[in-house]
Amino acid sequence: MTVPTSFRSGLAEDYLQLVGDSDEYGAVALVTELLDAGVAPQRIMIDLIARTQARVGELWAANEWSVAREHAATAISERALAAVAARTMVRPSRGSITIACVDGEWHALPVRLLAEMLRLDGWRVDFLGANVPGQHLVTHLHQTGPDAVALSCMIATRLPRAHAAITACRAAGVPVIAGGRGFGPGGRYAQHLGADAWAAGAEEAVQRLARNWPPHSPDPQLSAFLGDEEYTYVVRHRGDLIGTAMKTLAQTYPRLREYNTRQLDATTEDLSHIVDFLAAALYVSETQIFTDFITWTSAVLDARGVPPVALRVGLEAVRSQLHDYPTAVAVLNAGTHLVK
After folding, report:
1. What's the alpha-carbon Rg for the chain, to the nearest Å?
2. Residues contacting residue 324 through CB under 8 Å, at least 6 positions apart
3. How many Å apart are CA 125 and CA 105, to the nearest integer?
4. What does the pLDDT look like over 276-334, one tens digit per residue?
5. CB 45 within 8 Å of CB 121
6. Which residue, 157, 177, 160, is CA-closest to 169?
7. Is 241 exposed, middle or buried (0-12, 13-18, 19+ CB in 10 A)?
8. pTM score, whole prediction
9. Last residue of a domain, one of 178, 201, 225
10. For residue 6, what is the DSSP state?
11. Residue 3, in any domain of the structure
């Protein structure tokens, strides 16, 4: 049999079409055919399933796919990944690792993919899935005693919970490798939160864990004190900030009065994200967390026909309540300047 070194032209588009049409049979048949043709399972996972999932997210952001279609496509990719895993069992030859999403993080497919990649590399894997509360994670560590923990955080608003989980894992004597976009460009927030290592993706994590593990532990003082009084105020008054901002919007943005229930709910959700990303930026003293969010949100709202003025007014409605908190105001100003 000739072992293909790369996918044929158009294969990625074919697979995207299958998951977009909720064709589970077709998607599973496609990956099975690739395995039969000698394609390495790692390449199917990374180059086909993971890349297609990234494309699915882009299609949702561009308002070309609905949330429902995105979720259905993700479910199909999970089944395809399971089919690859079922065909490629490997006897454990390394240590054991626990893999989980931090509390409040629901994007489980990336860590499921990591789990399968590590199994192929000989690790014994405990995959705990999405949204794992910190106390339950630590209990599991005490019961199983793994050699490492891999924690995923895809959204920066989960960084405070990621920090709590990392601190608890290391207190239990288990080193942590972090991953996911939530830890910032190049994982810049991971070490600040006390992680022993960071990896940009599943392949890098496999390589990182295969050599010099565990690494030299980070300075505990780096992550000892995060979240000042401004962060505390924003978190404690989250509901008030959002509610007052909605009332202000009704007075200063006349179009809001014409919104239906669905649009009002979406606006409330957008304001919630503004407050949550502001809190995350304050927690680790990184304005870029907020400005990156505003840049992304602006593009998403533009794709849905929401004028920039709506976002700008929303930012101002939150900022007007925080005049006694200069750092929060500076972060909000930085975001507002990006709204054209």
Report:
1. 22
2. none
3. 20
4. 999 999 999 999 999 999 999 999 999 988 889 989 999 999 999 999 999 999 999 99
5. no
6. 177
7. buried
8. 0.89
9. 225
10. S
11. no
